[in-house]
Write a structure and sequence with these properties.
Elements: H1 2-22, H2 29-48, H3 61-71, H4 77-86, H5 92-101, H6 114-123
């Protein structure tokens, strides 16, 4: 059950983040607030079902950081440093794309300046990020089955001659 929910939450993360990276109309402060609220509801649900140890919440980290990125101030070099230290699960390319797509929804907000985006790129130069922008929503985690040893001992097993396994020797 834990593995199923980890996979499901990864798919939610990948599809939501990919939509955020592809749609200018959703890159705003209010979307960041809505995403953060919805993610907190998912995390609360995991706690209520006692699935915190499943790793499902950790798969949402890129989406959480994208939501926080949408909510942060984006003007000064201190803001740039805060973004760089906060967005560790996002690649440089994803951060820059979100900043480029950021669209103010009211007159109190301003567009992100080109100088600010260049400052972010300069600070993140040392990262060895993969070159991909979008997450692979078809990625599957390996399924792990617990090992349950059998109570039957190997010397009590009888191999029928019809199986032609004469090359096996009992030790």
């Amino acid at each position: 059950i834990q593995q199923v929910f980890k996979q499901l939450f990864y798919m939610i993360n990948a599809i939501a983040l990919n939509n955020l990276l592809l749609r200018k109309d959703v890159c705003s402060w209010s979307t960041g607030m809505q995403l953060r609220f919805n993610i907190s509801q998912l995390e609360e649900w995991l706690r209520g079902k006692n699935l915190q140890q499943s790793g499902a919440a950790e798969t949402l980290n890129p989406l959480i950081q994208a939501a926080q990125l949408l909510q942060l101030k984006k003007k000064t070099s201190e803001d740039a440093e805060a973004i760089c230290s906060l967005c560790t699960s996002l690649t440089t390319q994803q951060i820059v794309k979100i900043l480029n797509l950021y669209t103010p929804v009211n007159e109190f907000e301003e567009r992100v300046t080109v100088a600010f985006i260049r400052n972010i790129q300069k600070q993140l130069q040392e990262r060895n990020d993969p070159p991909q922008l979008l997450l692979d929503f078809k990625h599957t985690f390996p399924v792990l089955f617990p090992f349950n040893p059998s109570a039957i001992t190997m010397d009590s097993i009888h191999l029928p001659a019809s199986l032609n396994l004469d090359f096996l020797n009992k030790v």
